[in-house]
Write a structure and sequence with these properties.
With about 525 residues, this protein is of the alpha/beta class. It has three domains: about 100 residues, Urease, subunit C, domain 1; about 300 residues, TIM Barrel (Alpha-Beta Barrel), CATH 3.20.20; about 100 residues, no CATH class. It has 17 helices and 21 strands. The strands form four sheets. Strands 1, 2, 3, 4, 5, 18, 19, 20 and 21 form a nine-stranded mixed β-sheet that branches. It has a six-stranded parallel β-sheet with strand order 9-10-11-12-13-17, with helices on both faces. Strands 6-7-8 form a three-stranded parallel β-sheet, with no helix packed on it. α3 crosses α5 and α10 packs across α13.
Length: about 525
């Protein structure tokens, strides 16, 4: 037969963890149809992969690209890393379902995490997916549904238990999203309004997923100071009581008093697995986090959504209390004094404060002649919560420990973007641009902390297994041709904290659903992606 594309002379790392092998790959339409020695085969397009690695396209298990792919449909920051699928809806936030609240109010409730110039004119996963595919996207998207969004959709934005009617409505909205193909439900238990939910409330919702094959519970856990072990224990409790699989999101230690104690977390996961719970985790290879600035405020300040929070911060008495507790800590937070020089402004909403992008909270406080915590509450109030930061709050030895942990897979916690539009005036976390080449260049080629086969498994076959994607994540006959061809000697992350919007180098070709999105190292601008659905892809 004549193949549409023949990838010849490459070294195949198939995504299963098995040893690499020399081979050619024949592709017809969107499928891999032949693997072997096909030197004499005919093809409309022939890719010479001599000296290159050929592997499944990387599946980014933890992203917030729910809307960024509408603003940046090429998804260049991820495409140049070799990513073919973005798993969205993490940390409790999704732009659906809107429920009775409606899309406009849902958007106002969720704050700055899902920033976009695009108007929200959808209410369900189906309608959002239709908008994505009509607009066109270069990468695939695997959506999850956020419990925080569901809470907001029933107007439950404060610390209290849901009424029976509210719980009934939340279960309905969750079921609707799962029936429309959501891969699982996520929580963000240090962010509002998700953090106001009790374990019992989460379990009750998670039970809905029992009747949806492959659906799982993914949690940005309650990682309060001193609580790194209890955070994992709560995730295990939800999984066991609800009888659903668990994905522990961006596993890390951010409390400096607990550095070097990652084994205390992983032993909880291993014990739960020994007892029959399907629990895994994901991580990214950096010693800094990226988050909304309001995440460091006491949780009472954030109750009721963004408008209510801003109103509190405009009240002098409540503002003083918020600043005092932010500075000195509460039972749920660590004192921040050591962090102020380590928190950098990454994105900001309006022109009047754009000069602060790239500056630390300590520097801003000095310029304004105020205490650092007052600078924090002032920025949140002035920008109506449209402030995102990069916080340096972990150590390299912990990063390496979690990277090499047997049950960890890779998730960037970054968006698919390009340096235009809203991003043109920002300094995002370099994980947006560098996560996967950083692992392949620094940890595999440079430090040799793991084999290439193991690293690629953590990027492809392992996340595909969690997502129950039957046709993706491995190189095999009959599978969808999501394929990356990269140079193992040169693949490197170029993004830094000082200069984060630099595309990675080393990816020569990227096929999404059998179509070239990167060819000879250049983005083709072809929008070959689709919204994947649980149970159908």
């Amino acid at each position: 037969m004549i193949f549409d594309i023949l990838i010849a002379n490459g070294t195949v790392v198939d995504g299963t963890g098995k040893p690499a092998f020399r081979g050619d790959i024949g592709i017809a339409g969107d499928r891999i149809v032949e693997i072997g020695n096909m030197y004499l085969a005919s093809a409309r397009t022939r890719i010479d992969a001599e000296g290159m690695i050929v592997s499944p396209g990387f599946i980014d298990m933890h992203t917030h690209s729910d809307l960024s792919l509408l603003d940046h449909p090429g998804g260049e920051s991820k495409a140049y890393q070799g990513v073919t699928t973005e798993v969205t809806g993490n940390c409790s936030w999704t732009p659906f379902p809107a429920g009775k609240l409606g899309p406009k109010e849902l958007r106002a409730s969720l704050g700055s995490t899902l920033r976009s110039k695009v108007e929200w004119d959808w209410s369900t996963l189906d309608a959002w997916a239709s908008r994505m595919e009509t607009n066109g996207i270069s990468l695939n998207v695997a959506p999850q549904v956020g419990q925080g969004g569901i809470r907001a959709a029933v107007n439950l934005k404060e610390r209290r238990d849901p009424t029976p009617d509210e719980m009934k409505e939340m279960k309905y909205l969750l079921s609707e999203a799962l029936e429309q193909g959501a891969f699982g439900m996520t929580t963000g238990l240090t962010v509002a309004p998700s953090m106001y939910a009790s374990t019992d409330e989460i379990v009750e919702l998670a039970k809905v997923m029992r009747s949806h094959y492959g659906a799982y519970y993914a949690t940005h856990a309650r990682l309060w100071p001193g609580g790194h072990v209890n955070a994992v224990r709560e995730a295990v409790e939800v999984g066991k009581r609800a009888a659903v699989p668990v994905q522990y999101s961006h596993i890390a230690i951010i409390d400096r008093r607990m550095y070097g104690r990652g084994d205390e977390m992983t032993v909880v996961i291993d014990k739960a697995r020994d007892e029959g719970l399907d629990i895994t985790c994901d991580m990214y290879p950096y010693t800094a986090a990226g988050h909304g600035l309001s995440q460091i405020l006491p949780d009472w300040v954030q109750e009721g959504g963004v408008p209510a929070m801003v109103k509190r911060l405009r009240d002098p008495q409540q503002r003083r209390r918020a600043a005092e507790e932010t500075e000195h800590g509460t039972p749920d937070t660590e004192a921040r004094d050591w962090l102020w020089p380590r928190i950098f402004i990454a994105e900001i909403g309006t022109g009047k404060n754009l000069k602060y992008v790239g500056m630390t909270i300590a520097q801003i406080a000095k310029e304004r002649n105020v205490e650092p915590a007052e600078a924090v509450v002032a920025l949140i109030e002035e920008e109506e919560n449209n402030v995102r930061v990069v916080t340096h709050n972990r150590i390299e030895t912990d990063v390496t420990y979690f990277l090499t942990y047997e049950q960890s897979m890779i998730g960037s916690d970054g968006n698919a973007v390009d340096p235009s539009g809203l991003m043109a005036i920002s300094k995002p976390h370099p994980r947006f641009y560098g996560t996967y080449p950083r692992i392949l260049g620094k940890y595999v080629r440079g430090e040799k902390v793991m084999t290439l086969e193991k690293a690629i498994y953590k990027m492809t076959g392992f996340p595909a297994k969690r997502l129950t994607l039957k046709d993706r994540g491995v190189i095999a006959r009959g599978k969808v041709a999501d394929v990356v061809v990269f140079n193992p000697s040169t693949i490197t992350d170029m993004a830094t904290f000082d200069d984060p919007q630099k595309y990675a180098v080393g990816v020569q070709h990227l096929l999404v659903n059998g179509t070239p999105v990167i060819a000879n190292g250049k983005h083709t601008a072809i929008r070959a992606g689709k919204v994947l659905r649980r149970g159908k892809d």
